[in-house]
Amino acid sequence: MPIGLPRLTTLLIATLLPAAALVAGEAAPPMIGFEAGNARAELALEARFDEQLDAREMRAWLERMSAEPNQVGSPHDKANAEFMLERFRAWGWQAQIETFYVLYPTPTHVALELVGPHRFTAALVEPPIAGDRSSSRTKGVLPPYNVYGADGDVTGELVYVNFGMPDDYKELARRNVSVKGRIVIARYGGGWRGLKPKLAYEHGAIGCIIYSDPRDDGYGAADTYPAGAGRPAAGLQRGSVADMPIYSGDPLTPGIGATKDAPRIDRSAAQSLLKIPVLPISYRDARPFLEALGGPRAPAAWRGGLPFTYHIGPGPARAHLAISSDWAQREIYDVVAKLAGSAYPDQWVLRGNHHDGWVFGADDPLSGNVALMAEMKAIGALAASGWRPKRTLVYASWDGEEAGLLGSTEWVETHAAELAGKAVAYVNSDSNTRGFLGAGGSHTLQRLLNEVAAGVLDPLQAASVLARARAAAIVGASRGAAHTPEERRVAKGLLDGGDLPLEPLGSGSDFTPFLQHAGIPSLHLGFGGSEPGGVYHSLYDSFDHYIKVEDPDLRYGVTLAKVAGHVMLRLADADLVPLRAQDFSATVARYVEEIERYADRIREEAQDNHRLLDEKIYELAVNVTDPVGPPARDADVPYLNFAPLRNAATALGTSARAFDAAYAAALADPARLTPARAAAANGLLAGAERALLGEPGLPGRPWYRHMVYAPGLYTGYGAKTLPAVREAVEERHWSEVGDSVTMTAAALDAYRRALDAATAALR
Amino acid sequence: MPIGLPRLTTLLIATLLPAAALVAGEAAPPMIGFEAGNARAELALEARFDEQLDAREMRAWLERMSAEPNQVGSPHDKANAEFMLERFRAWGWQAQIETFYVLYPTPTHVALELVGPHRFTAALVEPPIAGDRSSSRTKGVLPPYNVYGADGDVTGELVYVNFGMPDDYKELARRNVSVKGRIVIARYGGGWRGLKPKLAYEHGAIGCIIYSDPRDDGYGAADTYPAGAGRPAAGLQRGSVADMPIYSGDPLTPGIGATKDAPRIDRSAAQSLLKIPVLPISYRDARPFLEALGGPRAPAAWRGGLPFTYHIGPGPARAHLAISSDWAQREIYDVVAKLAGSAYPDQWVLRGNHHDGWVFGADDPLSGNVALMAEMKAIGALAASGWRPKRTLVYASWDGEEAGLLGSTEWVETHAAELAGKAVAYVNSDSNTRGFLGAGGSHTLQRLLNEVAAGVLDPLQAASVLARARAAAIVGASRGAAHTPEERRVAKGLLDGGDLPLEPLGSGSDFTPFLQHAGIPSLHLGFGGSEPGGVYHSLYDSFDHYIKVEDPDLRYGVTLAKVAGHVMLRLADADLVPLRAQDFSATVARYVEEIERYADRIREEAQDNHRLLDEKIYELAVNVTDPVGPPARDADVPYLNFAPLRNAATALGTSARAFDAAYAAALADPARLTPARAAAANGLLAGAERALLGEPGLPGRPWYRHMVYAPGLYTGYGAKTLPAVREAVEERHWSEVGDSVTMTAAALDAYRRALDAATAALR
C-alpha cells in the first residue's frame, strides 16, 4: 500500500556534480550535522556500504519471497518473516519476531451479479497470463475483496458515481440522482479507495463496487500485461477500506498495542470498520454493469475508457452483491532488528518496510523490502569489520500493512513510551520501480535528504539521483496545462537553485504511526514514475512482471538501498542530529498562507455563486438536452482570525534562523562543540518533534496528534498540513477554527521553545 | 461548413428584461442608429415580421430540400435553387440565379486497405440506420472524399499524428518519428481539416487519412445515432481540404469571378489545391489501422476513445490509399434577391446562407437556409403591405460553400466594384440547432447585435436569447479547469454588466469573402451547443436526425429568423448606420496587448527552454521506458517595435469616443440631424470598413486584405486578429514584423480618419 508512484514534484533536487566525484573524498560536500573531518570519514563509510550491495542477491530474495501468496494469515507470510529473522541474525543484528493479534476478516463467499435489465455474473477471478509463472499458482489466493468492508447481501439499482468523491455527489445532486437504497459503482482514482464506500454509505447507499477504468489504469495508460506494464482486462485492485483517517492499526485496539492480552473493543464499536459491503472488480467485469445504466449521460470528466457512452443511472441496471467473511483474529509478524549505538545508544534511528502483500506482492511491498534487507546485510558487514553507529539502528520489516498499517501501528503503540524517549527519526519505503526518486517527509530532514540524493548516482545516467529528480520536476512542470501553480512554483525554485522540497506525508504506508501518532520525524522514499502501475494490488504483481517491466535487474533496488542506507548512516553517525530548522519554518509559513488564501478564495467563490443563484444564471444556462440544476447554496464564508498562527509561524522563523546559525557555528568549530555540549544539544534535538503533538489530537480523531501533518479526512492518502485548521476551514466548521488555530499555534510555539533551548545549548 | 457549434464564450450578452416587455412598445429600449420615435416604429415592424414566421412551413421546406443528396453537381442542388427562385419571386423579391463555373472534382475510385502486417479493406460506406429514412436513399450519394485533395495511388508505412497540427509534428520529432515517404493517419479536431494533409505534405508524407475518433466525436461525446445525437461507428466527415487560408473560391480563378468566360489559371498553378491524396474515414474503418501500429506509445493527450493503447508507428501497419477523380468544371447556382431601399437604394444590406450540402445537408446548411427563407417571406409580406426598407436588402442562398465558399466568393469577386461602393454589412448563417445564440463578427456591430438579441425571446424560457447566452457564458467560464483566462475575463465582464463580445471571425462559412476580401462589416449568427455534432458532414445529417435530436419543431429555426431578421431590418431602416466605434477600438487595443504579451511570453519561454537545453535538464528527465528527446532549440525572441500599433490604437480610441458622442448627440436631437447631414454621415459610414483593407494584403496571401480579421494560416477556421502582425510574431518571421506593424497601423489610421470625417459630418 505505497503512497503511489511519486508525482514528479515529489522528486528531489540536485547539484549537477556527479556522485562519483562526491565519493572521491578530497573535496567533501557540505554534510549537515557533521564536522568536516567526520564528514570525510562518513563518505568513505558510505562507499564501503555501497560495495556490499548486490543486485543479484536482492533479485533472489525477491523471487523467493514472492513465490507464493503472502497476505496476512498465509503460510508464506510467516515463512518470509522467519526467513528474514534467520538472515538478520546471520548478518549480526539482534533480531526478533514480535507477534500481534489482529482482527483480520477474509472472504468466505463473494458474489456479484447484474440482475436487470439482463443477467450477468461477474467472474471475479484473475486468470493465468501467458509467461507469468506465478499467475497460475493460485493455491492460497483469496477471492477479491476490500478488507474491513462489511458483510452483506444486497440488491438494488445501480448508480455510477465517478470517483465517488465529495464533488461527485454534488454533481449527482444537480442531476437529481440519489444513491439512497442503491448500490454505487465507482472507478478507482480521484481519492483514497476507502472514502468511496464511506461516502456512499454516508449518502445512503447499501453497497459499493469499485472498478479500475481502462482509461486511467488499463489500455488507456499503457499496453496491457504481458505486452506492456498496463493493467489487463481481468486485473483488479484489492485494498483496505478501513477508515484509516480516524486511526490506523487493528480496528479493535485503537491507541494500544494488539498484544495477546490487550483489552479489545467490540467490533460494533470499531470506528474504522465500514458499514456496507464493498467489492473491487476488473474492467472486464465492470463493463456489463456500466453499459446497462440509463439515466443522464455522465459529465465529460466522468467518462472512462470503455467503448460506449457512460450514463449515471439509477438503473435500469440492478445489481446483487453478496459478501460473507471469516472475522477471525490472526497473527501478524513484525521482524525487528537492532544494532546498538556506541555514543548514543538511547537515540534510535528507525527504518522500515512491510513484507505482507495482497497476493504475491513482488512490487508492493517486496521490491522495497529487499532494499531494506540489502541495507541490513551491508551494515552488518560494516559492523563485522568493527564499525559501530553512534546512535542505535532499528530496522523492521512490518506485517499487515496492506490491511491498515497493522504491524507498524501495533508496534508503535506497544513501544510508545520507549519511542517517545528515544526515537530520532523513522525512514520508510514500500514499492520501488524504475524512474525518479520520490521523497516525502518532515521538512527538518529536507536538507539531509537533498545532500544524500546528490551523492548517489542514478543507475542509468552519469548524474545523481537528485539531478534526475530535479530535472523531472522542472520538465514536468514546464509542460504546462496539467500542472498547478504549486508545481510551477516548485519548478521555478529548482531552476533558481533551491532544494527540492519534500512532499508532506499523508498516509498509505507505515510512516503514519511514527510521524502522526508518535511525533517522530519521518521520511518516505522510493523510485518510480517510469511506467504506470498496471498491476497494483492484483494477482499480476508478480516476480515475472517486476523483472519484465518494473526494474529488470534491480538497479533501482540497489539505488534505493543506497539512498535510504546513507540517510540512516548519517542520521546514526552525525555529530549533531542532522536537521535544518528553516526548511521547516519556511514550509509552515507557506502552509499558513495557503490556508488564508484558500479561505479568501472560497469566500469569493461563495459570493459569486450566490450572485449567480440570485440572478437565476444557472437556470438560464440550462441545456434542455442535458439539464443540470444549480449547485447548492453554500454558507457565506466569514473572515477568520488566523493571526495567532501567523504570529507563531513568524516567531518560529526567527528562532529557526538563530538555531541554524548556532548549529552551523558549532560544527564549524570542533573545539567549541565539546562532547557534553553535543550531547546536550542532541538530547534536545532527538525529541524536538514531539513538541508538535497536540493534545487532545485532531478534532474527531484523537489518535492523530501531529499538528503539522495528517492524512485528510476526505483525501485519505493525501496529506493535509496544519490539519486541524485546514480541515476546519475546508469542512466549513467555522466555530472550530478558533480552537484549531490556538492548538496549532501552541504546538508551533512549543517547537520554537525546543529549538531555542537547543540554540542555547549550542552557544 | 459552419464554423462549428458556438463555444459558450461566443455567445451573447443580455439584459434580463424579458423580450415580451421589450416588444410591447411603450418603453422603447435604446436602439442604436435610430431616433427615439423611429425606434418605436421599428419595434412595431419587428413584431409584424415575427408574426409571419411559421415553423411548420420551415419544416416542410427543410424536409423537401433535404430529401435527396444536394452536393454541387447533383440534380437536387439545382432543383433546390430553382425552388427558391420561384418562391423568392412569389414573395415579391427581384430574384435571379447567378451561375458560376468552377473546378469541382468528384471521386471516381476510392480505396483504402491495410496491407500489412495483416490485410483489411476499409468499407468506406455509411450503411442505412433504422428509423432514418433518407439513410437508405443512396442514389446519387458520392463516395466519401475530401474535395480538392490530390489523386494518387500510394502505399506506405502508417504514422499516427494525433490532430496533425504543428505541435504534433514537434512531438513526433522528439520521438525521432518522421512521416517522410509515409502515410499519416490523423484524427479530426485540434484545427482545421485542410491543415492536416497540408502539414503532412510539408513534412514529406505521401498520403493522409483523417478519421473521427469516438472520444471526441462518437460514443465518448454522446449516445450514437439513432439512440442519441452522437456519431455512429460508420459515420464519416467529408469536407474541403482546399488551402482556403490562401484564398477561397474556385481554385482556378483567384480574385476574379468564375464566370463562363473568365480567364483561368492552370490546375498545376492553383495554390489552393492539395498535393497529396487524402481520405476521411469512420472510426469503424480506422480501428484496424490504428490497432496495427507499433512504435512509441502515443502521448497521453493523443489517446482517443478506441479500446486499445494508441501507438505512433511508423508501421508495422502499412496502408494502400488510391483516389481518382473526375476533375470536371461544374455549374453552381447562387440564388440572389433584392428589395430596393426607399431612402438609400445604393446602400446594400446583405444576408446569406448556403444551400449545398455534403449529402442531404438537413442541419448543414438547410436549417440555416430555411430561416433565411422565412425572413424573406416575412419581409415580402411587409413589403406587400406597403412598407419599404430605407436601404436595399440583398438576400442570397449560396451554392458550393462546402467545397470552399465557391458561390459566395465568386459572387463577391464578380460584383467587387459595386460592393465596394454599396455594401453596408453582410449577415451570415449556416447550421442551426437548439441551444444558445452564438455570434461572431465585426466589433462595430457588437452593440447592434446585443440590442437585437435582448429583444428576442428564447423559445423555451421566458428570457431573451441574450440573457440565456450571457448565462451560458458565465456558467461555462465559472466551471473552472477547462477554461482560459480570456473566457474568465469575458465572464467577469458579463457579470459586471458589459456587452457580450462578438467572437472575431476566421473562416468556415460564407462571410469570408465579404469581410476579409471585400471589407464589408459582417456578422455570423446561429444557435447551437445543446448537443454534440455527431452527424456533421455525414450521410446521417438527415431530416430525421434533425427532427429527432437537433431542433424537433424548428423553434430555434424561427428564433434565428427573428434575430437575423431584426438585425437586417435595423441595418436597413436605421437613421444612421448602426455601429458603435468604441466596441471596435477597445477590442483592437486588446488585440495589440495580446500580441505584445504573447511576444513577451514566447521570449521568456525561449529563454527558459535554452536554459533547460544548456543544462541538459531534458536529458536528465528522460524516462527510460518512454524516451522523449529534448525539443528543438527555438531562436531567441528579439524585442520588437509595436509602438506604431499602440499609437494607432490609442488614436483610434480617442476618435471612437468622439464619434460615438457625436453620433448619440445627433440622434438625440432630430432637429439637428437633417436629411442632408444624415445622408452625408451614412455615406461615410457605409464604406468605412473598407479603410481596414490593406494593400497588398496579408503576407503571402494577398487575397486576404482585412488588417484586423483573417483565418489563421495554421488555424484554418480559427481567427487571427491583426493577422499580419500576429502571424509574423507567431511564425517567428522577425524581419516581417516591422512592415506588418506599419501596414496594420496605417489601416487603423485610415479607419480613424474615416471616423473623424463622419464625426465632422455629424457635428
Notable features of this structure?
homodimer; 763 residues; alpha/beta; Aminopeptidase; Glucose Oxidase, domain 1; Transcription Elongation Factor S-II, Chain A; seven-stranded mixed beta sheet; 16 strands; disordered N terminus
Please describe the topology of this protein.
Two copies of one chain form a homodimer.
Chain A: H1 19-22, H2 36-52, H3 55-65, H4 75-90, E1 94-103, E2 106-116, E3 120-121, E4 152-160, H5 166-174, E5 183-187, H6 195-202, E6 207-211, E7 278-281, H7 283-291, E8 318-326, E9 329-339, E10 344-354, H8 362-384, E11 391-398, H9 401-404, H10 406-414, H11 416-422, E12 423-429, E13 435-441, H12 446-454, H13 465-478, H14 485-495, H15 511-517, E14 522-529, H16 543-550, H17 555-573, H18 581-614, H19 617-620, H20 643-668, H21 675-686, E15 709-711, E16 719-721, H22 723-730, H23 734-762
Parallel strand pairs in A: 4-5, 5-6, 6-7, 10-11, 10-12, 12-14
Antiparallel strand pairs in A: 1-9, 2-3, 2-8, 4-8, 9-11, 13-14, 15-16
Helix pairs in contact in A: 2-8, 2-17, 3-8, 8-17, 10-15, 12-17, 13-14, 18-20, 20-23, 21-23, 22-23
Overview of this structure, please?
- Two copies of one chain form a homodimer.
- Chain A is an alpha/beta fold and 763 residues long.
- The first copy, chain A, has three domains: 37-101 and 330-463 and 505-573, Aminopeptidase (3-Layer(aba) Sandwich), CATH 3.40.630.10; 106-327, Glucose Oxidase, domain 1; 581-762, Up-down Bundle (Transcription Elongation Factor S-II, Chain A), CATH 1.20.930.
- The first copy, chain A, has helices spanning 19-22, 36-52, 55-65, 75-90, 166-174, 195-202, 283-291, 362-384, 401-404, 406-414, 416-422, 446-454, 465-478, 485-495, 511-517, 543-550, 555-573, 581-614, 617-620, 643-668, 675-686, 723-730, 734-762; strands at residues 94-103, 106-116, 120-121, 152-160, 183-187, 207-211, 278-281, 318-326, 329-339, 344-354, 391-398, 423-429, 435-441, 522-529, 709-711, 719-721.
- Chain A is globular, with a radius of gyration of 26 Å.
- Chain A starts with 18 loop residues before the first helix and ends with a helix.
- The relative contact order of chain A is 0.15.
- The interface between A and B is large, with 51 and 51 residues.
